[in-house]
Design goal:
Helix content is 78%, strand content 0%. By secondary structure, it is mainly alpha-helical. It has one domain (2-190). The termini are close together.
């Protein structure tokens, strides 16, 4: 039961971090834009899933050789660098060999990069505590599924919270933060 609580806490932390830190630039707005069209959400989640899975699995493998327990920051930075390398490689390969696919996927790749770093960095930092490779794979795949689920929950909440009975002072970001806070309290039950 602790693993479920940790997993849901990571997802809500990622959603909160995107809402607060990256809202206007490239964060949650990209997910909300993508979720309005279901195919776009899938096009966003596929590269996030691939990059997060490869990155987390690589970091888990690397953690078997690094025994320093204070390596959280180094693992997070190395994971982020690995995601950036995978992004640039994917971007250049698609642009060169599949320009018609790049026309559909190209605009979502930078958003997928940020989301894969936000979703996978906490797990990669704690990868030394993951006991085996299939647990690492489960964390990676589950985090992307949780990101998609979190996006759908927040999208539905945005539709509900766009109600005329909500006072003007609470409309927009304030009511969304209250909504996310209540959701995260509900997920704390699993801890």
């Amino acid at each position: 039961m602790n693993y479920i609580g940790e997993f849901l806490s990571y997802i809500m932390l990622a959603v909160f971090a995107q809402n607060i830190l990256l809202d206007r630039a490239i964060g949650m707005n990209s997910i909300m834009t993508a979720i309005s069209r279901k195919r776009s959400l899938l096009r966003l989640l596929i590269p996030v899933g691939c990059w997060s899975t490869v990155g987390i699995m690589f970091m888990w493998f690397l953690s078997r050789f690094v025994t320093d327990m204070n390596s959280y920051i180094i693992f997070t930075l190395f994971y982020s660098l690995l995601c950036i390398v995978m992004y640039f490689t994917s971007d250049r390969l698609l642009l060169r060999f599949q320009p018609e696919v790049y026309d559909k996927w190209g605009e979502l790749l930078p958003h997928a990069l940020i989301n894969s770093i936000v979703v996978g960095a906490p797990i990669s930092a704690l990868s030394s505590g993951i006991p085996n490779w299939y647990s690492a794979l489960g964390y990676a795949v589950g985090s992307v599924a949780g990101l998609g689920l979190g996006a759908v929950i927040i999208k539905n909440g945005m539709e509900i919270l766009d109600h005329p009975n909500i006072p003007k002072a609470f409309r927009g970001m304030p009511i969304m933060l209250i909504y996310i806070g209540i959701l995260s309290l509900g997920f704390c039950i699993f801890l």
